[in-house]
Amino acid sequence: MQRVVGLDIGIKRTGIAVGYSSIGIASGFTAVASNQLLEELKRMHSEEPFSLVVIGKPLQMNGEDSESTPFIEKKGRAIQSELGLPLQWHDERFTSKMASQALVAMNAKKSVRQSRLVIDEVSATLILQSFFDKVL
Questions:
Q1: What is this structure's pTM?
Q2: Domains of the chain listed by start with CATH number
């Protein structure tokens, strides 16, 4: 089975999700400070290697890059360089809003619904699941 990692990279935090291409189901893993992302991915990869990194690409409504796109692309290049793994970019528009809505639908406590760490992790899960749904 090929393990795939999905990322919702932000300036402060990054949500991480994992899944297996053979079953096409994404699961939330964690959220980390973005300045610790590369170290966390190295640790994860050494414990159980993955074959692909899917990164949410922030786009504006008109499809153009957002102001955070250069930062996220730079992180992506660093990940690719350090881990030697292929990257796949995937549209991440509305994932934070959908993550918040999903937490409400699950009747999550208010403290959980307002946690940026939880929202980032759920957003990464939505990005990876959307990627699986599109390519599998």
A1: 0.90
A2: 3-135 (3.30.420.140)
Model pLDDT, residue 111:
66
Q: Which two tokens stand for residue 100?
A: 């918040």
* Rounded distance between C-alpha atoms, residue 17 and residue 124, angstroms: 5
Instruction: Locate 45 and state its tokens.
Output: 């990869």
DSSP per-residue string spanning 36-48: GHHHHHHHHHHHS
Nearest partner of 116 among 130, 129, 103, judged by Cα? 103
Token pair 């934070």: residue: 96
Whole-number Å distance between alpha carbons of 88 and 23:
18
Q: How many CA atoms lie within 13 A of 65 on its CB side?
A: 8
Q: Determine the average pLDDT of the residues in 27-48.
A: 97
Say how many CA atoms lie within 13 Å of 69 toward its Cβ: 14
Encoded amino acid at 112, one letter: V
